[in-house]
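Changelog note: in this version the structure field was regenerated for every chain. One regenerated record is shown below for reference.
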Amino acid sequence: MNHHYDVIIVGARVAGATLAYELSQAGYEVLLVDKGEFPSDTLSTHNFFNNSVAILRQMGVLDRLLATGTPLYRRAVVQLEDAVIDGEFPAVHQETECLCIRRIYLDQALFEHAAAQSRVTAIEGFRVTDVIREGNTITGIAGVHRSGAVERFIAKLVVGADGRNSTIRSRVNSMRLRTVPTDYASYVGYFSGYEQDGAIHVEMYKIKDKLVIAFPTSDHLYVIGAMFPLDDQEWSSRFAQSSEVAMRELIDISFTDSPLPERLRKSALVGRIRGMRGYDNDWYQGMGEGWALVGDALSFKDPAVGQGMHDALQGARILTGILSGHERWDTHWGEMAHKYASMTEAAMLPRYHMACQITKNVPFTPEQMAVNRLIATHPEATKAFLGVYNHALEPEQLEQIIGRLLQGG
């Protein structure tokens, strides 16, 4: 086996597999490794808005994903207290439909698509234990196979695509630049028999200090996520005793003015409910001498905003473009790092700030509720609101539209 590559990517799920594919198309020799084996599942809301679906189509993997039978959707219903925002996501790059595909199908498809490229070598079941250094520069990785065999690989660049608890990020001592801890505990499960009115759609509810999201996903299931404040000892205790019973009770009690309770009562849990408590919304230094980060290793955001999948795809493309623009990397680390930081911030920081707002347990002010009701009753504002989620508009454009409508324009 070859032990020298242009790029080694650690982590072969969405960010890593996408980066391996993009780099191979740009002419680089890539080693893609993951400690797990595919197919395998991971905790995730796994939603692609239609701007991300456009990238999947361009990569040539969308048809395989659709072959799983996972439904497409266009509509969203967002209830913020008594304001119900109901509309369709605006088109992006001629794509009109969104896709929420289970990770057990998504990750395998992306991994195999990347591994099929002639310039990609892919290894499953390889756990990275450390990075290799020459002075201040990262030059490779050391790790162990499932068999116990130890192996080392050398590359011009090592990329951490290994998630929010990234080993590579820790080993290269990437600096944490921003952090906002969540106020919420999150629990997620898959349900069958969940029936909606009208066209299938994504749902989000925020009533007082509780949140629920619901997405149509693979295998005729819906993924339901429920969030409540971390410091709520009563609900923490209930979820510790029985997460399914607690989720049903929380929705019955806290979302009476929504269709959620009746829909969930008719639904059956498939598998188990999994929880995530006490996560941070983080943003790290993205590149240094011989290393870079993509996906959740670079920036993890509250899953309620549904931006993780797109940031993984977009970050892979940004990094590939920067690398392709420099013939010699070893003499341009500082320049490339500055460019990577500025481009990822321009592309992803506005939704990071959105996540940091959602992740705090702060009630709506009367002024915010007035804006929410305006969005719910005005089609242009509804379209703009949903367009922020799929990058059809930027948050400041939504603010301009709301300002004009409030002034009677």
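Spot check on this record: The chain has a mean pLDDT of 97. Residues 60 and 113 are 9 Å apart (CA to CA).
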